[in-house]
Design goal:
Blueprint (H helix, E strand, L loop, with lengths): L2 E6 L19 H16 L6 E5 L2 H11 L6 E5 L7 H12 L4 E6 L3 H12 L4 H9 L6 E6 L5 E7 L5
């Protein structure tokens, strides 16, 4: 793996018809944010080879919207990404990255935020950037890292959705 993109699902509805968190769908704002972040990442030249997507409804919908900008990405639904901690997210990405140059993980907090902060620290990112990621990694946010041949990360971008 040469690049890792961590994408938190878009803004979700507060409840689902079933009452289950797993079934929560994107709010209208989340649909727009997800499409926008996908288009922005593609415009910057980020092209995932593989998308690891949590099986929850809101992450699936996020990828439908964001993934439209990446028609050649292979999509893999990974049930274990729902409620995954930072270590589980990283392990899934590293496994997928054995056969892919760029991996995008579409998942949830706190695991994605914790991994983003961990990778920023490992990559010796500026302290203010680490603090920014520690304070917030909102729905629709994306963190991008270059991964060297030894598996060491370096910061390549932190993107938050535009909100009024």
């Amino acid at each position: 793996m040469q690049r890792l993109i961590l994408l938190r699902h878009g803004k979700a509805e507060p409840d689902s018809a079933s009452g289950e968190d797993f079934d929560r769908r994107l709010a209208p704002r989340g649909v727009l944010e997800s499409a926008a972040v996908g288009a922005s990442l593609a415009d910057m030249g980020f092209r995932p080879d593989v998308a690891l997507v949590s099986s929850a409804a809101r992450t699936q919908e996020t990828w439908v919207q964001a993934g439209a900008a990446f028609p050649n990405a292979e999509t893999r639904v990974v049930g274990e990404l729902y409620h995954a901690d930072a270590g589980q997210v990283r392990q899934a990405a590293e496994e997928a990255g054995r056969d892919a140059g760029t991996v995008i993980v579409v998942g949830h907090n706190p695991g994605l935020q914790e991994l983003a902060v961990q990778l920023l620290i490992e990559g010796s990112a500026p302290r203010e950037l680490i603090h920014q990621a520690q304070r917030k990694f909102p729905p629709g946010a994306a963190a991008v890292f270059l991964i060297d041949a030894n598996g060491r990360p370096s910061f390549d971008g932190l993107f938050y959705p535009d909100r009024p």
